[in-house]
Design brief:
The chain is mainly alpha-helical. The chain is 76% helix and 0% strand. The C terminus is likely disordered.
């Protein structure tokens, strides 16, 4: 670790997190598209999940394309073109994907709309490959996961407002419960989104972001002496499975929630949007809480921020829904559930492996509660999965790429490839729901969390044998 990299480089980090916002905005908006497309195109629950499959499988295809080009070049693509150029290129590809919504809307073509989402996801794949390790690299390693958590908090600001904006701006008629709107209403908003992609690409191109981050170029003693591929690291291989299942349970919990609330609880489609927003806001709440160490080393200030940050994020959710003129009364009780998150965050002591174990265990409890209860209690239980998923991505990602050194970019690409779990697990749960019912189908998520708890336990020993201890790094910072 370079002694020069002792503080977070905020001037570079702030422009970087704009792409995290876009990922969240589009991903959460898909949850509103699913029930609307299901009715408009007369789809089964499993078929409606093709929205998730098309979007998330594109991450795998994008990573394979990236690695294929690297093999042809006989050099890592990102290392060749630079991290900043990689981000800009990814945004341009996503912008091209938004253009497909225009002919898709004109022809009323479900496959073409899926193709548009797929292309947007291809661009996101390259952006994710670059941005995640870059967020870790823009400061000291001991706060790397907290920095990635903070970026995730910006991502979830996008996921919080995404469902509301899509319901109101794109499907304004759906917001009142009428889904018999023209599919052509997606054209202008997605063209605006594409323009935003291009503007941010220009912003990043002329920003101070590094093309070749110093800490990524450095490598551990083991990586320089014995390893020739990222796949030779057990923490990465197990981490790939963990990312697959983590994204799977995060996405499937939300994407199947509208069907559960509509069929079992009698909610109108237009009334579901605030609850989808709450789910993604829960990830924002958790990530703002988990990011406090990236701001200060002062322990007293951290204790204050651990209570202030989650309720500030919750306030953002309430404000956005108040502006959208939704009834806030059902959501105030959720403030008590946030206390469980705060206690879990304090118990983790900033160690990503310990945090992963605690939060995965709480995810199991939340899903089992949702399966075994009814009414709004079950909805809040399923929604609270967002709280416990909130810090899992940065924990898994940090653990998986630790010690990879010059293989970090390659390892990151393998991890991004596994984002396809978001589509596959969603489809799997949708299929299972047709056999055992939508509420019981959440047992799929329980098995996902069980593996994540196992990975948290197993990877600690793997990294310790490589001389990597997050407890030592964190304690050294205080």
């Amino acid at each position: 670790m370079s002694s020069k990299n002792l503080q977070t480089k905020w001037g570079q980090f702030i422009p970087l997190v704009t792409v995290f916002f876009f990922w969240g905005f589009v991903a959460a908006s898909n949850d509103i598209l699913i029930p609307v497309f299901k009715k408009a195109f007369d789809l089964t629950q499993a078929q409606s999940q093709f929205v998730s499959i098309a979007f998330y499988i594109s991450y795998t295809v994008g990573s394979l394309i990236y690695m294929g080009i690297s093999l042809l070049m006989k050099q890592d693509l990102v290392n060749k073109i630079g991290y900043k150029n990689g981000l800009a290129l990814g945004l341009v590809i996503s912008a091209l994907g938004t253009l497909l919504f225009y002919p898709a809307a004109n022809t009323g073509s479900y496959p073409l709309m899926l193709a548009g989402l797929f292309t947007v996801g291809l661009g996101f794949s390259l952006q994710q490959t670059v941005a995640n390790p870059l967020a870790i690299a823009l400061g000291p390693i001991k706060t790397g996961s907290q920095r990635l958590t903070l970026a995730g908090g910006i991502n979830n600001f996008g996921t919080t407002i995404g469902p509301l904006i899509v319901s109101f701006a794109i499907f304004g008629a759906a917001a009142t419960g009428n889904t018999d709107m023209s599919i052509e209403s997606v054209k202008i908003p997605y063209l605006i989104l594409g323009l935003a992609f291009l503007l941010v690409a220009i912003l990043l191109k002329f920003s101070s972001l590094p093309e070749h981050p110093e800490t990524i170029e450095e490598s551990s003693e083991e990586s320089t002496s014995t390893k020739t591929s990222a796949l030779q690291y057990p923490q990465l291989v197990m981490g790939m499975v963990a990312i697959f299942l983590y994204v799977g349970v995060e996405v499937s919990t939300a994407s199947n929630l509208p069907s559960y609330m509509e069929t079992k609880l009698g909610f109108a489609i237009g009334d579901i949007a605030p609850y989808i927003s709450l789910y993604w806001a829960s990830l924002m709440i958790g990530r703002w809480t988990g990011a406090v160490e990236a701001f200060t080393d002062n322990m007293s200030m951290q204790k204050v921020l651990r209570f202030l940050a989650p309720y500030l994020a919750f306030g953002v959710f309430l404000l956005v829904n108040a502006i959208a003129k939704h009834d806030l009364t059902p959501f105030y009780i959720y403030g008590l559930i946030i206390l469980v998150l705060i206690a879990a965050d304090m118990a983790s002591k900033g160690n990503p492996a310990r945090m992963l174990l605690i939060f995965a265990s709480l995810g199991i409890v939340a899903l089992l509660t949702g399966i075994s209860t009814s009414g709004r209690i079950s909805v809040y239980a399923f929604t609270s999965v967002g709280l416990f998923c909130s810090t899992l991505w940065p924990c898994i990602f940090t653990l998986a790429v630790s010690g990879l050194g010059k293989h970090t970019s390659q390892g990151s690409s393998f991890l991004i490839m596994m984002i396809m779990g978001g589509g596959i697990v969603s489809w799997l749960q949708g299929t299972v729901s047709e056999s055992i019912g939508i509420q019981s189908s959440y047992i799929v998520g329980v098995f996902c969390f069980a593996y994540l708890a196992f990975y948290a336990w197993k990877v600690s020993g793997v990294l310790r044998r490589q001389g990597i201890s997050f407890d030592k790094k964190i304690s050294g910072g205080h």
